[in-house]
UniProtKB/TrEMBL annotation:
UniProt source species: Malus baccata
UniProt GO molecular function: GTPase activator activity
The protein's name: Uncharacterized protein
Highest taxon above the source species: Eukaryota
Annotated InterPro entries: Rab3GAP1
Amino acid sequence: MGWILHYLETLRPHQLLEQMICTAFRASADTLNQTSYGGLKQMETKMDQLYITLASALRPLQVSIPANRLSAGSETIEDIRRLCGVFEHIEKLLTIAASLHRKFLQAPRLSEAIFSDCCSFYFPRMATSSSGDNAPKEFDKKQQVRMHERPIVSNMFTPPTANQSWRKVLSLGNLLNGHEPILREIIFSKRDRVSGNHYAAHTSQITQEEVETYRMYSCGTSNDLRVALSVVSCD
């Protein structure tokens, strides 16, 4: 225990920051990897690639190089920013994969086909879209629902009760034979403009860029509503 305390007492601030960054990214990746998304091979491949990217981007922080490696404008800062973008893409894909897996537990073929279409639509835009425009958009690809899969899809929609049938003002839209879905998932996000590195002096060379500072997840049925809020702090 004594040598641990001595190590912490003599640890330089920039070294502590580097270790905190490595630990935070690895913990975030492990948290994402605990999400259940079934046997979606494309999602599994993206998770494997995330760990490879993680090791490559954080390697400069784990070797002996000059103490100013975290200074504003360095290559390491840019690598970390790109790594944040990778995490954003993976998290959004993982949200879709987990949602499909949960809804189509009894129809894995349909879940995989829909996710494959989403990936085909989304992957080409990952490297070209700017931050804020990289969220999966609605696309018009259709899937043929096989005979044994039809009850699974239809069971996601329930006939309105006598009390609900006239309350159209509360409806978000009839999506299947005039019936409402039994569950809705909505994600709200807000983007703010920030300037460069929050921990370094501001300079005229640092350009403004947008970051996703708020994200709210809403999940509701006719009798239940659950809301989760994620907030990014730059303190």
